[in-house]
Design brief:
It is a single chain. The protein is an alpha/beta fold and 409 residues long. The protein has one domain: TIM Barrel (Alpha-Beta Barrel), CATH 3.20.20.70. Helices cover 53% and strands 10% of the residues. It is built from 19 helices and eight strands. β3, α10 (172-186) and β4 form a beta-alpha-beta unit. α10 packs across α11 and α11 (199-210) runs parallel beside α12. The longest helix has 29 residues, at 379-407.
Length: 409
Amino acid sequence: MPLPTRRAWVAVHDLVATVDVPTGLFTRIAEIPAPEKWRPANVDRGAGSEEEGGAVRGTQQLKEIGQSLWLDNITRRMLNDGTLESYVDDFSVTGLTSNPSIFDKAIEQSEDYDDSIREAVNRGVKGEDLFFELAIQDLQRAADLFRPAYERTNAVDGWASLEVSPLLAYDTQSTIKEVAALHERARRENLYIKIPGTAEGANAIEESIFAGVPINVTLLFSPEQYLVAAEAFMRGIERRIQAGLAPSVPSVASVFISRWDKAVANEVPDRLRDRLGIAVAKLAYAAYRELLNSDRWLRLANAGARPQRLLWASTGTKDPEAPDVLYVEALAAPFTINTIPDKTLRAFDEHGAVGQLMPADGGDAEEVLAEFSKVGINRPELAERLQRDGTEAFDESWRSLLTSIEGKM
C-alpha cells in the first residue's frame, strides 16, 4: 500500500476530531501505515508551525496523526504570564491534566496563591474547601483558554481536569458525592472530574457517567485495569439509554506508563531497561482498539454514544540515561491523548519526531512481556502495586498540599 500524504492524515485527524467515531471505519483508516520518519513539507499550517528548513515541529506531527497533546501541569504563574497560552499557540496543546502533586508544588513553591488564600481565609474558607476554590479558579481559566478547541472539535478535545480528594479512592459513595459537587461548582462544560480507577472507583465512575458528569479515570496501569474502567463507563452509558437520557457523556481513561520502568529499573538486565511500560501500553492500546470494534460498543455508538478516549499519562522519561522523548515517540497513536510535563513538551517540539505508529494488535508486546516474566517480573501483581503506590503517593501529596495552604494562612 502506498504511504499516505500528510494532507490525507490531516483530513483523518479532522474527521476523528469532529465526528463521533464509533465503527470499524476509524480502525481501517488508522491502520494506513505512516512513514518511518515523517517530515514532508507541502501541507497548509498555521504560522509558527515549522522549524527552519521546512521541517515540521514534533508537536505538530502528533496533531497531524490524530493524537491530542495535553499538558500535565498547571500553575497560576503560567496562566498569568502567558506560558500556557503560548503552549496552545506554539506547541498544539489542546488540554491539560492536574493532580494533587502538581498543585502541591505550585502552591508551596510560589507566592502566586498567597493573596487568594488570605482573602478566602477572611471569608472563613479553609482546608479542602479552600484548596478546591484555588484549583477551580485556575482550572476555569485553563478551560476557557481551551474552549476554542472544545468547540472546534465538537467536545472531543479542549479539556482540563480536576481530581477528587485522593483520600476517597476506596470510598465509592463519598466519591460520587464529591464528583457531583465539584462538577456543579466548577461551572465549565469542558472540565473533567478525575476518579481513581480502583475497584471502588469503578462504581463511582458508572454512577457519575449515568449522572452525566464528564469523567477522567486516573491511576490505571494495565490493560486489565483499563478494561474495568471502560466497562464502568459503558454501564453508565447503557443505563442512560435505558432511562431515555442522552448517551453522549465524555470520558477519558488514563493509563500511566513510565512508572512501570522506574519500578523494575534495578531488577532487570540492561536489554530490558525502559521497555516494560511501552509493552504494557501496546497491550492497552490493542484492548482499546478491540473494544472500539466490539458489537457492544457499536450498539452504544449507534444510539449516539461517543468513545471513552485512551490517554497516556506519566510519559516523562524518568531514566536519566534514556532519551528524553522516549515515551512520546513510542506512544504515537491516532485517537489517543498524551499528557506530558513542560520539559518533555519542549524537548519533543525541539527534536522529537513521529515514526512508526503504535500497532493496533499490540505488536511485539506479548513477546517482550514474556522476557520480563522470565526474569521474575509478575505483571499483574506489579500493576496492582503500582496502583496502590500511586494512590498512596497522591494521599501524601494531598496532605502536604493542605499543610502548605495552612502555612500561608
